[in-house]
Amino acid sequence: MDNAKIIYLHGSDSSSQSGKARQFAEKFQGMKTPDFTGSFDERMNQLYDVLGKEKGWTIIGSSYGGLMATVFASENPKQVRKLVLLAPAILKDENGIYIDPVIGEPLQGKWKHLQTISVPTVIVHGNQDDVVPLEPVRKTAEELFSDVEFIVVDDGHRLQKAFSELNWEEILE
Protein backbone atom coordinates (compact mmCIF):
# COMPACT_ATOMS: atom_id res chain seq x y z
CA MET A 1 0.00 0.00 0.00
CA ASP A 2 1.24 3.44 -0.97
CA ASN A 3 1.02 5.67 2.11
CA ALA A 4 1.07 8.76 -0.13
CA LYS A 5 -2.36 7.63 -1.37
CA ILE A 6 -3.87 7.53 2.13
CA ILE A 7 -5.69 10.64 3.35
CA TYR A 8 -7.26 11.38 6.73
CA LEU A 9 -10.31 13.66 6.83
CA HIS A 10 -10.84 15.07 10.33
CA GLY A 11 -14.15 15.95 11.98
CA SER A 12 -15.91 19.31 12.09
CA ASP A 13 -14.29 20.64 15.28
CA SER A 14 -10.96 19.00 14.68
CA SER A 15 -7.79 19.49 12.62
CA SER A 16 -4.75 17.76 11.22
CA GLN A 17 -3.27 18.04 14.71
CA SER A 18 -5.96 15.97 16.43
CA GLY A 19 -4.96 12.84 18.31
CA LYS A 20 -6.28 10.46 15.61
CA ALA A 21 -4.72 12.46 12.77
CA ARG A 22 -1.32 12.40 14.50
CA GLN A 23 -1.61 8.69 15.36
CA PHE A 24 -2.47 7.77 11.77
CA ALA A 25 0.31 10.00 10.38
CA GLU A 26 2.81 8.35 12.71
CA LYS A 27 1.67 4.83 11.81
CA PHE A 28 1.42 5.47 8.04
CA GLN A 29 4.23 7.91 7.39
CA GLY A 30 3.82 9.95 4.24
CA MET A 31 0.02 9.93 4.29
CA LYS A 32 -1.90 13.17 3.84
CA THR A 33 -3.59 14.86 6.82
CA PRO A 34 -4.82 18.22 5.48
CA ASP A 35 -6.86 20.77 7.40
CA PHE A 36 -10.40 21.54 6.25
CA THR A 37 -12.30 24.68 7.25
CA GLY A 38 -15.55 26.42 6.52
CA SER A 39 -18.92 25.10 5.40
CA PHE A 40 -19.51 21.63 4.02
CA ASP A 41 -19.32 22.98 0.45
CA GLU A 42 -16.06 24.78 1.20
CA ARG A 43 -14.58 21.65 2.78
CA MET A 44 -15.63 19.53 -0.21
CA ASN A 45 -13.98 22.02 -2.59
CA GLN A 46 -10.81 21.80 -0.50
CA LEU A 47 -10.96 17.99 -0.67
CA TYR A 48 -11.34 18.06 -4.46
CA ASP A 49 -8.29 20.35 -4.66
CA VAL A 50 -6.22 17.88 -2.59
CA LEU A 51 -7.31 14.69 -4.37
CA GLY A 52 -7.45 16.10 -7.90
CA LYS A 53 -8.08 13.44 -10.53
CA GLU A 54 -5.68 10.87 -9.03
CA LYS A 55 -6.92 7.33 -8.51
CA GLY A 56 -6.22 4.72 -5.87
CA TRP A 57 -7.04 6.73 -2.73
CA THR A 58 -7.66 5.14 0.64
CA ILE A 59 -9.78 7.67 2.49
CA ILE A 60 -10.07 7.60 6.27
CA GLY A 61 -12.90 9.87 7.36
CA SER A 62 -13.73 10.63 10.98
CA SER A 63 -17.22 11.89 11.91
CA TYR A 64 -17.83 14.92 9.62
CA GLY A 65 -14.82 13.78 7.61
CA GLY A 66 -16.66 10.46 7.20
CA LEU A 67 -19.55 12.33 5.59
CA MET A 68 -17.06 14.13 3.31
CA ALA A 69 -15.42 10.82 2.36
CA THR A 70 -18.81 9.25 1.66
CA VAL A 71 -19.93 12.10 -0.58
CA PHE A 72 -16.61 12.06 -2.47
CA ALA A 73 -16.77 8.29 -3.03
CA SER A 74 -20.39 8.52 -4.18
CA GLU A 75 -19.39 11.05 -6.83
CA ASN A 76 -15.95 9.64 -7.72
CA PRO A 77 -15.90 5.88 -7.07
CA LYS A 78 -13.16 5.26 -9.64
CA GLN A 79 -10.75 7.45 -7.64
CA VAL A 80 -11.27 5.59 -4.34
CA ARG A 81 -9.65 2.25 -3.53
CA LYS A 82 -11.12 1.95 -0.05
CA LEU A 83 -13.11 3.90 2.55
CA VAL A 84 -12.46 3.61 6.27
CA LEU A 85 -15.10 5.57 8.16
CA LEU A 86 -14.74 6.28 11.87
CA ALA A 87 -18.07 7.08 13.55
CA PRO A 88 -19.17 8.72 10.28
CA ALA A 89 -21.81 11.46 10.42
CA ILE A 90 -23.88 9.87 7.64
CA LEU A 91 -27.39 10.57 8.82
CA LYS A 92 -30.63 11.34 6.97
CA ASP A 93 -33.64 13.42 7.89
CA GLU A 94 -37.22 12.15 7.83
CA ASN A 95 -37.37 12.79 4.05
CA GLY A 96 -34.34 10.62 3.34
CA ILE A 97 -32.09 13.61 2.63
CA TYR A 98 -28.56 13.61 4.06
CA ILE A 99 -28.06 16.20 6.75
CA ASP A 100 -25.18 18.44 7.66
CA PRO A 101 -24.91 17.64 11.38
CA VAL A 102 -22.94 20.79 12.11
CA ILE A 103 -25.80 23.11 11.15
CA GLY A 104 -28.60 20.56 11.49
CA GLU A 105 -29.87 21.26 7.99
CA PRO A 106 -30.23 19.09 4.88
CA LEU A 107 -27.26 19.05 2.51
CA GLN A 108 -27.96 21.21 -0.50
CA GLY A 109 -27.92 20.60 -4.24
CA LYS A 110 -26.33 17.46 -5.60
CA TRP A 111 -25.52 16.13 -2.12
CA LYS A 112 -29.11 15.69 -0.96
CA HIS A 113 -29.20 12.14 -2.32
CA LEU A 114 -26.12 9.98 -2.87
CA GLN A 115 -25.49 7.22 -5.39
CA THR A 116 -24.96 3.69 -4.05
CA ILE A 117 -21.28 3.24 -3.24
CA SER A 118 -19.58 0.02 -4.34
CA VAL A 119 -16.14 0.98 -2.99
CA PRO A 120 -14.99 -1.47 -0.27
CA THR A 121 -15.88 0.24 3.01
CA VAL A 122 -15.06 -0.45 6.65
CA ILE A 123 -16.99 1.44 9.32
CA VAL A 124 -15.55 1.56 12.85
CA HIS A 125 -18.14 2.79 15.33
CA GLY A 126 -18.31 2.88 19.11
CA ASN A 127 -21.29 1.35 20.86
CA GLN A 128 -21.10 4.21 23.40
CA ASP A 129 -21.08 7.02 20.82
CA ASP A 130 -23.28 9.84 22.13
CA VAL A 131 -22.46 12.24 19.26
CA VAL A 132 -23.26 10.13 16.18
CA PRO A 133 -25.50 7.23 17.24
CA LEU A 134 -24.58 3.77 15.95
CA GLU A 135 -27.94 2.40 14.80
CA PRO A 136 -29.00 5.25 12.47
CA VAL A 137 -25.54 5.12 10.90
CA ARG A 138 -25.77 1.35 10.47
CA LYS A 139 -29.20 1.68 8.82
CA THR A 140 -27.99 4.40 6.44
CA ALA A 141 -24.79 2.50 5.63
CA GLU A 142 -26.63 -0.72 4.82
CA GLU A 143 -28.73 1.22 2.27
CA LEU A 144 -25.86 3.27 0.84
CA PHE A 145 -22.89 0.89 0.60
CA SER A 146 -22.93 -2.36 -1.39
CA ASP A 147 -19.65 -3.60 0.15
CA VAL A 148 -19.52 -2.61 3.82
CA GLU A 149 -18.06 -4.18 6.95
CA PHE A 150 -18.94 -2.89 10.42
CA ILE A 151 -16.49 -3.07 13.31
CA VAL A 152 -18.37 -2.14 16.48
CA VAL A 153 -16.06 -1.37 19.39
CA ASP A 154 -16.62 -0.72 23.07
CA ASP A 155 -15.80 2.98 22.82
CA GLY A 156 -17.24 6.47 22.43
CA HIS A 157 -17.26 8.90 19.52
CA ARG A 158 -13.56 9.73 19.66
CA LEU A 159 -12.60 6.04 19.42
CA GLN A 160 -9.57 6.60 21.65
CA LYS A 161 -9.41 3.00 22.92
CA ALA A 162 -10.15 1.54 19.50
CA PHE A 163 -7.09 3.12 17.92
CA SER A 164 -4.68 1.04 19.98
CA GLU A 165 -6.84 -2.09 19.88
CA LEU A 166 -7.43 -2.45 16.12
CA ASN A 167 -5.08 -3.74 13.41
CA TRP A 168 -5.07 -0.69 11.14
CA GLU A 169 -2.68 -2.23 8.61
CA GLU A 170 -5.23 -5.01 8.04
CA ILE A 171 -8.18 -2.61 7.96
CA LEU A 172 -6.50 -0.37 5.38
CA GLU A 173 -5.22 -3.33 3.33
Total E-strand runs: 7
Query: Whole-Å distance between the termini?
Result: 7 Å
> In which range does the helix fraction lie?
25-40%
The CATH superfamily bears the name: Alpha/Beta hydrolase fold, catalytic domain
Helix/strand order, N-terminal first: EHHEHEEEEHEHH
- CATH architectural designation: 3-Layer(aba) Sandwich
Report the sheet-strand fraction: 15-25%
Quickly give the structural class.
Answer: alpha/beta
Q: Can you tell me the overall shape?
A: globular
CATH class type: Alpha Beta
Rg, Å, rounded: 14 Å
Number of helices: 6
Reported for the largest beta sheet, the result is:
5 strands, parallel
Describe it for me?
The protein is of the alpha/beta class and 173 residues long. It has one domain: Rossmann fold (3-Layer(aba) Sandwich). 32% of the residues lie in helices and 19% in strands. The strands form two sheets. It has a five-stranded parallel β-sheet with strand order 1-2-3-6-7, covered by helices on one side. The radius of gyration is 14 Å and the shape is globular. The N and C termini lie close together (7 Å). 36% of the residues are buried.
Give short descriptive properties of this protein.
single chain, 173 residues, Rossmann fold, five-stranded parallel β-sheet
Short structural summary:
The protein is 32% helix and 19% strand. By secondary structure, the protein is an alpha/beta fold. Strands 1-2-3-6-7 form a 5-stranded parallel beta sheet, covered by helices on one side. A two-stranded antiparallel sheet has the order 4-5.
